[in-house]
Amino acid sequence: MAKSALLKSSLAKKYWMALTGLFLCLFLAGHLVGNLQLIFGDALQFNQYALFMTTNPAVKLLSYVTYISILFHAIDGIILTIQNKKARPISYAKENAAANSAWASRNMAVLGTLILVFIVTHMVNFWAKMHFDEKMPLQTTTIDVGGQKQEFYLTTDGGYMPKMQIEQQAVVIKNRTEFYDAQANVKLKDGYKDLHKITFEFFQNEQFGLIATILYVISMIVLAFHLNHGFASAFQSLGANNPKYNGLIKGFGKGFSLIVPLLFAIIPIYIHFFAK
Ligand code: HEM
Fold first, then answer.
1. pTM
2. At what angle do helices 3-35 and 243-269 cross, to 10 degrees?
3. Ligand 1 — pocket residues by CB below 6 A?
4. 3 state DSSP class of 91
5. Ligand 1 centre from 95 Cα, in Å?
6. Residue-number span of the structural domain to which 249 is assigned
7. Measured distance CA(50)–CA(41) in Å, rounded
8. What is the best residue among 59, 63, 73, 127 to mutate for testing ligand 1's pocket, by most ligand atoms within 8 Å of CB?
9. Strand residue runs (E) in the chain
10. Are residue 155 and residue 207 in the same domain, yes or no?
């Protein structure tokens, strides 16, 4: 390929890396706000939020854009790294800017790969359970009825479904969340998937809860470094180079790449060490 064509295609790739990267930052900010409910909200609030996020058509559409952005960002990044390597087979002296940017991009590839591994395992542990696990629990609560403790499922209409009804087979659960009158085969109510319980059980697990918490914190440190460099190069790739705003953009990037991973890291630490 001619050098100019290579440059052109690699510029286009950098442009798309920047766009998908910035979109993923928006996702991260939203995901963080939702997940902070694990600290500041109760189980019902978090499960209501999870239900909204998995059923609202506009949010579903945004989710698909997120998955595509992750794939695109990762594949584009791998291709760019290979192109960079091919274009500069000989190492430059340390103070050479081109060599430094090649080093940064190699570094970004390693950090990005680690984040991809994190995202895949993270989605297997939470997202896949929420969407596909037949054994995903429904949220229950214990209520004192005439001096006797009874267990109820919480239902999306703000009511309850006695667990006893299911045990006595008067009510059956269909499609994982729907309560049906067993005889009339009529839908009565919907339950909540208990994503709050799944998340707490994960980080409080006796065997792997501590190691999972540590791995999450390490992943957030990796994310912080990736975001820090990513922000700087994204604005460069998009051509945002106005002396008036450069300082502001840099400051925002630095703040975002520190605060967002830090708050994410606090969530598993809180659940493992401090929550009931
Ligand atoms: C450390 C704290 C975090 C917690 C407690 C957490 C928790 C969760 C949970 C419970 C889900 C399932 C939600 C659902 O399917 O409705 C989820 C999905 C997801 N998480 Fe996280 N997450 C954390 C950090 C992150 C980070 C740092 C990233 C990215 C680097 C990430 C990427 C994702 C993605 C891509 C999904 C799928 C989202 C979708 O379907 O729209 N998460 N997370």
1. 0.92
2. 50
3. 31, 35, 50, 53-54, 63, 66, 115, 119, 122-123, 126-127, 130, 195, 199, 216, 223, 264, 267-268
4. coil
5. 39
6. 3-135+199-274
7. 13
8. 127
9. 140-145, 148-154, 160-162, 171-174, 178-181, 186-190
10. no
Distance 35 CA to ligand 1 centre (A): 8
CATH number of the domain where residue 36 is located: 1.20.1300.10
Using the mean position of ligand 1's atoms as its centre, give its distance from the Cα of residue 31 in Å. Answer: 7
Q: What is the pLDDT along the chain (276 residues), one digit of tens a residue?
A: 455 565 567 888 889 999 999 999 999 999 999 999 999 999 999 999 999 999 999 999 999 999 999 999 999 999 988 887 777 655 544 445 555 555 666 688 999 999 999 999 999 999 999 999 999 999 999 999 999 999 999 999 999 999 999 999 999 999 999 999 999 999 999 999 999 999 999 999 999 999 999 999 999 999 999 999 998 888 888 887 778 888 888 899 999 999 999 999 999 999 999 998
Distance between Cα 254 and ligand 1 center (Å): 22
Q: How many CB atoms lie within 10 A of CB 139?
A: 20
Q: Which ligand 1 atom is the nearest neighbour of the CA of 199? A: 10
Same domain, 69 and 176: no
